[in-house]
Structure formats: C-alpha cells, structure tokens
Amino acid sequence: MSQPDSAPKSEGPKSEAPKSEAQRRTEKILAAFHDEERFTKSYDARLARQIWSFLAPHRVLIGISVCVLLVTSGLSLIRPLIMREGIDKAVLTGDKHELMRIGFLFAGVLLAEQVLGFVHMYAMQIVGARAMATLRTEVFRFLHGRRLSYFDRQLVGRLVSRVTNDVDAILEAFASGAVNGIGDVVRLAGIVALMIALDWRLSLIAFIAVPPVALFVRLIRRPMREALREIRARTSRMNAITNEQVSGMSLIQAYGRQAAAGRDFDETNVAYRDANVTSIKWEAIQDASIDMVGSVCLASIIVALGYRPVSFGTVVAFSAYLSQFFEPISQLAQRYTLVQGAMTGAERVFSLLEIGEVDAEPKPATPPGDASLAVALEHVNFAYKPGVPVLDDLSLAIKRGEKVALVGPTGSGKTTITALLLRLYDIESGTVRIFGDDVVGLNRHELRRRFAVVPQDVVLFPGTVAENVAAGEMPDRERVRHVLERIGALDLFLAREGGLDADVGEQGSKFSAGERQLIAFARALYRDAPILILDEATASIDSDTEARLQRALEELLRGRTALVIAHRLSTIREADRILVLRQGKLVESGTHEELIRQSGLYAKLHELQFSREHAAAPPAKTSETPATLTTRA
Q1: Chain Cα centroid distance, residue 438
Q2: DSSP codes of every residue in 79-129
Q3: Which of 13, 86, 555, 597 is the most buried (most CB within 10 A)?
Q4: Is residue 580 part of a domain?
C-alpha cells in the first residue's frame, strides 16, 4: 500500500506532548538501528545465546559433529608419532616390512581424518543452513507482522539486507568451519602435551611466542570488528540505493539524472570498497604476524637442536608438532575473524527483531455498538507523526448496503480512513467499528476478510492470472472463471496465450492498465466480502475496457456496502451519500444534488474540476461515458 494521501509532507514548529518511557525507548532503538555505522556496544554472550536458540533444535547433529571433530583432532596428533616410529625403526634400520606396516598405518590415519572431516563439515553446514533458514523466516515473519507505521520509518534496502546479507554473515561462520575452533583448541592442548613429552626445553622456545600472539590478536579485535561493521553497514546502504534507483529508473532516465545517480552510488561503493580494504589489511597483518613468529620459533629450534643429542625421528616429529602448533593458532585467529563477522551480522539482525518488543499495545476494545452500521468512526483522532494531526475528532457512520463516496482535497484524510478500517494503523483515541465491533478487539486476519479492496494502483503478484484473482488462496479454477465471466472479462483473458495460467510478469508488466484493473475487480469479487473499498478504481482505465469495467463495477456493488475514494467527482454522482472532508474533519454530507445546492466545498471542487476537464478534454464521443456508481442498494 502506498503512503496515505494524508501523510504529512512537512512539519512546522509545533509543540509536542511529553514522550512516555516506551516512546523514548522506541526512539533510542530506532536511532541505533538507523545509525548503521555505530553499534557502539556488542554483547557477544547475549548474541551467542540468541544464535543458539536457532541452533538448539539441531543439538543432536551438533553433538555428533563435535564428537567426530574431536576424533579427527586426535588422529592428527598421532601422525608425527607414526612418522618418528617409521624413521627410527624402519628407515634407519632398513626394515622394509616394518616400513610397509607403518606406511599403511599412516595412510589409514590420513584416510580416516579425511572421511571424518567430511562428515563433520557436512553436518555443520547442514545445521548452519537449516538454522539460518529458520532465522531468515523469523525475520520475514517479523516484517509481515509490523504495522504500516513501522515501514514508514524504514528504507527497503536496509530491511532486505537484514534478511539476506546479515543472515548470510552468520551462516558464513558455519560454512567456513568456525566451529572447528573447538578442534583447534583440543589439537593445541594435545600438541603442547606431546611436545613437552618429547623435549620440554625445546618446547619452551615455542611457548614463549604464545603471549605476544595472544596480545596482538586482542589488540586488533576492536579495529577488525569496526571494519566488519562498516562493511555490513555499507552493504545495507548499497542495497537501499540500488533498490531506490532501480525502482525509479524511469524518472532517472526521463530527467537525465544518470550521472547524478551514478555519483550517489559511487560514493557508497567507494566507502564499501574502503571498508573491505581496511578489513583485508587487518586480516593480512594478523596472518603475517603469526606466520612470522612461527618461522622465527622454528629457526630458533633448529639452531637449538644442534646443541642437543636427539634421534632423527624425534627431530622430524618435533618439527611436525611445531608446525602444527602454530597452525591451530593461525586457524583460531582466522576463525575469530569469522566469528566477529557473524556477531556483527547477529547484532544487526537481532537489533531489528528487538524493535518489535517496544511496539505499543492497542487500547482495549469497547463493548459492541450498533450492528446495523457497516462502518462507524466515533471521535477518532489520528496522526502519522506526533503533533501533526491527520484526523481530528472525526465521526461518521455508513449503513449496511450504503454506497458512500469520500471526497476532499489532498491530505484531507480519505485514504487514512480506509487504512484505519483495515487496522493498518492504530488510532490515538476514539473508536472504529465494523458491524458494531470495535476493530481493536478483532483478529486482524478476520477483520480484513470483511473487506475487498480495489486500489487505484493495482499490485499484481508473481504468478498466473488465476493465482492473482484468488489473491493468497489456492485458486478454485471454476470460481475464477465464474467471477471473470460475471465482470465480462473471461473472454479477454482466455484469448491470451496461456489463458488463466498466463504469467502476469513482474508487477503485472505483461498486462495493460485496464487488464490489471479488471483482475483487481475480479479479485474483489472472488473474495466476496461484505464491504468494498474503491480507491478511484476507474481512473486509469482505457476506453477499450470501459464497458467491461462498468459491468464489473455493477457486479461488485450489488448487495455490498461500498466506500469510494473519489478524485474524479464525475464518477460518484449516483452515490447514496457523499462525505466531504477537509483537514481531517467532516464538513459536508449529502447527495450530489444536495451538495451542489449548498454551494459549499464540494460545489467549489466540482466547479473547479469540471471547468478544467472541459477546457482540457477533446470533444467527447456520444458512445463513450465515464464509469460511475450507477447501481444503488
């Protein structure tokens, strides 16, 4: 649904009511959510618990995977000992049978490592993919559960980034084996024990390097985290800008703004590149430093071996352990980077979900009212922004079966009224009733089942004609054919290639404006709701489908309560009643003839519009008449 016509375009210097604690908390969280570059605090333990809530259903598979990982880590510790045994007892003695036995044993250990490594990695990636699919679904459901006022404050690209890029950052930790850090720690502990067992004096040379490496990793933790946050923020902005520019491509090209749009994108793209360069720089410094320390230690131990009498097999085994000693340290540092990226993504995803925790609860429902009224608004006050009222103490009532038109200048509150009836927004005070029931006490889904909406700008969803007519339900083909036949459009769609199974294309791009509008009328008739909302549904219809639309309109209005938002006053002359709004207040009410005789706002609007249309329109053909509300209850 587009932004309502009465949404404020600007704010003057108005005084605002004191903010409640809930409002202040909401604004604080929203400010943090929008300030993409500045998540000043990170609570890794809390984020880890939130991530675990999505991993917990797969704890059995995780447990099996970790056990396999521990066995794999243990097997990797055996290899240098097998090498020492083979050199001292087979190679140096020339025992071919012993060499063959040890060779098969070494090959078997390697094969077991590879097989178990595959099982572990496959299991963890399956767990990660399933858990992140659940998280992505949770975020998607969260977005569907928000009120429209929530989306008024958001950029589409940023929300899309939360569902895609940020969740992918968490998944990357599983795909790249960050959980292998458990195995790295076990391997490191085993290597330390075995190196001490082989020669504790030589081991000290390697152990001296551990504190500097740990201190260095700790020092670069903050700049690394900040760089990753910057990458996520710039990715989000790039998505937002791309979405905005692709959606407005026709205007960009029409006004020749390609160069300006390119500059806007380049600014964000360069910032994204620089953030990546910063991240790469810190990661490269980290890896190079660890490799350098490892090389220095290895050289020192080789020199020290010249002063200690040990067997050649022991030298080979110790060298292998020394190489393995720095390998898990380097791997842990790299996995730490992955974890930082996952935590950054988790920060952004869970900060989005936390916004929903501070949504204000609606006021309690009032007792039932007059059930003979299809629609009733009682002293309703509403504003999109605090201090900028849109509806001001508005009261109106529509009887069952009545055809009522809403007219008034732009910003008078016409579309806002329909949004409140559907409870897309919650009112500040007053009561909105449908058939006597306060909408606050009704289930939103059941409430909206009472309405069929035909908007001015028709939205068609990906799929077929039949699926779009059914609009969210499994299409009943006979019912689809019946409603299209009732509005006189069945032959039109059957004549197309594919018939009712024809693909409508992205946003209905394969159909004309008139055909899309006919689908919208058929959709409303398919729902068969007691209340019909028409938002100037005949405004974009071409002359070729005028007769079809007139028939569709008659079918839709028959036996229903209708609320028509009228921009062309010529289309609502036959309405039972016309309600005239100005600045959120009901100023006039009556039939077309009554309002013309009153010489009030409606008469002025009608005279102004008629004079403009008469001056701009070419001579009308007698065979063409505008679609109007001709069917009375």
Answers
A1: 31
A2: HHHHHHHHIIIIITTT-HHHHHHHHHHHHHHHHHHHHHHHHHHHHHHHHHH
A3: 86
A4: yes
> Cβ(351)–Cβ(33) under 8 Å?
yes
- pLDDT tens sequence across 132-179: 888 888 888 888 777 776 776 666 667 777 777 778 777 777 666 666
Residues 270 and 416 in one domain: no
Give the CATH number of the domain where residue 603 resides.
3.40.50.300
The pTM of the whole model exceeds 0.85? no
Task: Confirm if 600 and 606 have CB atoms less than 8 A apart.
Answer: no
Q: Which of 205, 204, 202 has its CA nearest to residue 308? A: 202
**227-245, pLDDT tens digit by residue?**
877 887 787 778 777 777 7
Q: Are 561 and 531 in contact (CB under 8 A)?
A: yes
Based on the fold, state whether residues 333 and 447 are members of the same structural domain: no
Q: Are 533 and 451 in contact (CB under 8 A)?
A: yes
Distance CA 166, CA 159 (A): 10
Residue with tokens 């990753």: 228
Residue 378: beta bridge partners?
431
Residue 90 CB contacts under 8 Å (≥ 6 apart), including other chains: 96, 98, 99, 102
Domain around 407: 373-616
* Residue at token pair 């959120």: 584
Task: Kindly state the average pLDDT of the residues 517-536.
Answer: 86
Looking at the structure, tell me whether residues 352 and 380 fall in a common domain: no
Does residue 20 fall inside a structural domain? no
In the chain, the amino acid numbered 551 is R
Residues 123 and 263 in one domain: yes
Does a structural domain hold residue 551? Answer: yes
Same domain, yes or no: 459 and 389: yes
Structural domain includes residue 10: no
From 359, 355, 354, 350, select the one nearest 135 (Cα to Cα): 350
For residue 580 the two structure tokens come to 């005239």
CA 566, 570, 571, 575 dihedral sign is positive
- According to DSSP, residue 163 is labeled I
Give the per-residue pLDDT at 381.
92
Q: How far apart are the C-alpha atoms of 558 and 551, rounded to whole Å?
A: 11
Indicate the Cα dihedral angle 188, 194, 198, 200, nearest 10°: 60
